[in-house]
Structures are given as structure tokens and as C-alpha cells.
Design a protein that fits this description.
Layout: E1 7-8, H1 10-17, H2 21-29, E2 36-38, E3 41-45, H3 46-60
Antiparallel strand pairs: 1-3, 2-3
Helix pairs in contact: 1-2
């Protein structure tokens, strides 16, 4: 699986961003972080996480 197609779990996103579970779900709910559901599992494409970080950095500048 390449970085473009890598799917992350909510706990992996929590660990990478050092944020809480509820914050991850808030980002998903407000459509700031793209995600998909496979069965009952929520997955976040790695490129969506990179896009969120890039967007946040642009906003801070």
C-alpha cells in the first residue's frame, strides 16, 4: 500500500496528531478531515490527514 492509499484508524490519527478521540471525530463531523466507513470501521486516508495539517499550517501563517 502506498502513502496515497494508506488508510489510518482513528487511534492512529490520534497518535500522529496527539489529539483526543473526540477531537478526531469532531474533525470528521465538521468535514475538516475526510474519512470513509468500511463495514463498521472508520478509516482516514493518509492523504486527507496530510491535507488537514497543510491547511492548518496555511491558516496559521
Amino acid at each position: 500500500m502506498t502513502a496515497d492509499t494508506e488508510l489510518l484508524t482513528v487511534p492512529e490519527v490520534m497518535d500522529r496528531l496527539k489529539i483526543s478521540r473526540s477531537t478526531v471525530y469532531d474533525l470528521i463531523r465538521t468535514r475538516q478531515l475526510a474519512s470513509l466507513t468500511i463495514g463498521r470501521a472508520r478509516r482516514i486516508p493518509a492523504h486527507a490527514l496530510h491535507a488537514l495539517v497543510h491547511h492548518q499550517l496555511e491558516q496559521a501563517a
